[in-house]
Structures
1.
Amino acid sequence: MIRTASVVLLLLAAQIADSQNFNNTGKEFVVVFPENIAYYHPTDPINEIWVTALHSDTRITIEKLNINSQPLRVTETTNFTTGLELKKPDIPENSTSLNVFSISDEAIKVTSTKDVVVQAISLRKNSVQYAPVIPSHKLGTKYFIPPVPGLEESPDDGAVVVNVTERGPFRLIIVNPGEDQANVTIKGGEELSGAIEPGKVAQILLNNNGQYQYVEADRPVAVFFSHPCAFQDNCTCGLLHAMVPAAKDDKEEFLIPPILAEQASILLSDEKSRTSTDSTAPVDSEGTVILHKPSFLLTLMSKKDFGSCFVLTPLRYLIKSFHIVVHKDDKNGIYIGGDPAGYTGWEELKGTDYVSTHVKVTFQKEFMWHNSSVMAVYLVGEKNGRMYGNPAPVVSSIPDYRGCVVTPEVIEILDEEKRWKESIKSCETKSLKLISLSDNRLQKHLCSKISAEGVKEAWIGTRRSSLTGDWYWLDKQQFGDSNWASGKPGDKDQCAVMSLKPNDDCSWKDKNCCDAIRPFCYKPPEFLPM
Ligand SMILES: *[C@@H]1O[C@H](CO)[C@@H](O)[C@H](O)[C@H]1NC(C)=O
Ligand SMILES: *[C@@H]1O[C@H](CO)[C@@H](O)[C@H](O)[C@H]1NC(C)=O
Ligand SMILES: *[C@@H]1O[C@H](CO)[C@@H](O)[C@H](O)[C@H]1NC(C)=O
Ligand SMILES: *[C@@H]1O[C@H](CO)[C@@H](O)[C@H](O)[C@H]1NC(C)=O
Ligand SMILES: *[C@@H]1O[C@H](CO)[C@@H](O)[C@H](O)[C@H]1NC(C)=O
Ligand SMILES: *[C@@H]1O[C@H](CO)[C@@H](O)[C@H](O)[C@H]1NC(C)=O
Ligand SMILES: *[C@@H]1O[C@H](CO)[C@@H](O)[C@H](O)[C@H]1NC(C)=O
């Protein structure tokens, strides 16, 4: 009976971990800079890779740029500049079709010794775009392709004109970050297959009759949707660039911040629905949802990919405002650095329990986090009247009242039933501690996380002194906030257990130290210093 129960417990823990763990952190990334033309401005592009360290003593290696960085401090951000940029796709002169994989070599691999966040910025004259880079281990093998929007101010309305680079059509950029060749097939009305060698990039031109609908690869790849030079006012043009998140297993809900949606259309890439809509109602999709205005593409985050801690730093000089979407009950839990943000101006998202606000950037602080919930944060900038933006990179999606989590906490109720004293050792052999619960907020926090069906109770790290009769915690914190089942402990036993039964509020009971009971082992999370 008890064996079966422990399986249930592990499964529950695994499910929770899975759904809560979206983040943009990793140790390996592949960055590409899309072709950025900036019409009639023969200035050099400025392409920057921004890396934010989340742990001390983090070293960055970028082979192609010959970079072996000095160790970065925790929260330190650094940038590397490169001229390496994708070129116009190479379509053979005698090719009868434009449906060609144009392969090139401009992918840049960034590796680090510890988890970091990476962002890429393309800047040329007034043409700016940036995006968080998805770590290689988070990439997928199936991607839906956004429908190609008509470009109002382009005379060709997005039509395929290959020999005029300034008006090149939208293109799909596919990167193979792996160690093995990736075989990629683009499917839909037509089919196109090609192989991408490790570390290489493929560009595929997209016309606007929706001939391609999704990408399937036999290995994880990264996919971007880009236009090098979408016509804008005054005979200039700007880069349109959006990361394409991997296809979901199921439909997920996307919420649309009303301010950003003004005069925008929504590009939906689902197999079944490829329509545009200008409604701000939430959208369900297993694919990509991209908000589009004539000079602006913004990839939206699904509700499942909301985060609890975001990096704001690097774009200090590029970002004008950020837009937050959060549940209406959670709008007070937002922090900037160490201080509650106290944002106002919340606007309801029709038909949902969510609200959104937008805030001018002042950037005294570098991280935004939520103490009890998850949210979406979009960074939006503007140069000469042209908008650009993307979701802020997610550091973690595990909310914690203590701060921004960079290494998740470990909660384990071990299988083996032992006496209290031996339980301390059982935890230690797993590099954990028998839990000390002096803080009322920690009690609540943990209680919301454990749901150990079938397990009645577990040892906690408190014991009564046989001399004084006082209770004390193993971590030597004061015995303050208590949670005894009947308000106070009995007067018989020297050790204590926490109830794991539903509706018991994780309350405690004194217990004979020699009983055999499972230990509640714990390791606190690591936080970013604020
Ligand atoms: C990028 O880093 C260089 C130093 O390597 C610095 O001079 C430059 O100002 C940084 N760029 C920005 C936009 O901060
Ligand atoms: C296309 O042209 C290339 C040289 O530019 C040549 O090698 C190739 O055989 C030609 N292909 C066809 C199908 O004519
Ligand atoms: C561009 O290509 C089209 C056919 O695709 C051709 O008719 C036109 O002459 C070409 N223009 C230039 C400037 O090469
Ligand atoms: C990938 O494609 C190559 C030819 O392009 C083929 O030889 C190889 O078997 C394919 N690999 C897989 C796993 O399908
Ligand atoms: C376009 O150019 C005109 C004249 O040079 C200028 O007054 C106007 O502000 C420009 N518009 C934008 C959006 O840059
Ligand atoms: C989160 O922060 C808000 C505002 O500071 C506070 O009122 C609330 O109690 C906090 N929640 C938790 C779980 O600490
Ligand atoms: C980020 O996600 C990975 C799984 O992809 C997970 O192992 C890691 O713990 C997460 N980091 C944080 C801080 O939640």
2.
Amino acid sequence: MKISPLADPRDLPDLPRLLRDEPRDTEWRLHRGHERHLGHPYGQSFDPGVPPGLAQLLINNLGAPCADQQTGTEAREMERQVIGWLMQLWGCEMPQDHWGAISASGTEANLWGLHLGREALPDGVLLYSADAHASIPKAARMLRIPAQELHCTPEGEIDLAHLAEALAGLGGKPVLLALTCGTTAKGAHDDIAGAIAVLETAGYGPERRFVHVDAALSGMVLPFLSDAALSIRPGFHLAIDSLSVSGHKMIGAPMPCGALVCRRVHARRNGHRVTDPRPAEVAPMRTRNDHAVLAIWTRLFGRGYAAFAEDARRCARRAQALARQLRGAGAQVLCNPHSLTVVFAQPDEGMARTYQLACSKGLARAVVMPSVTEPLLDCFVSDYAAWATRRGMENDAAMTQPR
Ligand SMILES: *Cc1c(COP(=O)(O)O)cnc(C)c1O
């Protein structure tokens, strides 16, 4: 229904009905949409969830996460516990040497990470791979960081030879390097240790480089997979500077959110610049959504390490199984090791819409999240196989047409 923004609610023909129906219709549509969602890594199992009473409250985390709580409308202690959980997962052996906060999204966490990098190295040039998330070059534009895109391997990992070449061409300028753990397009994991070794070889020691790892999806997958090489597992066991994750992907918060953890030295450098009685305000957003903190806290502590580890193992297994089934149906498929993302030729528009596949450049992808059910995958495989057969027949027919 179209409602004029100028309308006085009292003039609307049936206000009680409108207030009841419009949200209810939207809810119905969302349920339908969520049931058949394959294209984006949305966590959609919300149990345990935040007790409903809290949804009625304004909870605003005002200012620095590491500061003491100053108003009665914050959930700061829970934010610290959440960050502590992530720090442990990501190998921060000395949590006091690290800093972290909940962000509005993985995108915003990437923006913060690169902001910290720019403050550390004001003359730095950002290097990122062609398959880095769009938020990386966007952050570079917002922060006016000169940036250069690097090639990827066909599987979607950053091309380390091209990295070495680019470093040699920087004329000694410092470098900000954005790596990805679980690329959006192909679920690839950049070789973090390999990239750092290339930096070292090129003479880029820790004081002349800043390494940010965008681990929006796989930051909550790879740390749990003991068979994944340490070189691609995101964490501070490697000489990285900051690490970001989305809250509404594997963590499963029912609203967009994210988190950033960095070495404390970077947060401290930024915090000094703030003239404010509150200490070390690093987050670019002063007002932050504590409902997200509650949601993430409830998920992490309510489920525990072992449950997330099981999710990661199971989803990685199921992604490989989906890839095998699609290959069995004659499709060409890419599913990188330890990845939840399965990539294949883009089917017709109707099918892409039905399963809400993410499509680009003739490829489509499905992400096997914990909430993706077996019946949904079965339906998808059978529809995709039928489409591939139809297309194969059309191609055959085209080949046999007289010229
Ligand atoms: C999803 C994603 C992002 C963006 O995260 P949002 O939380 O959706 O803003 C960034 N990088 C990668 C690799 C992603 O998969």
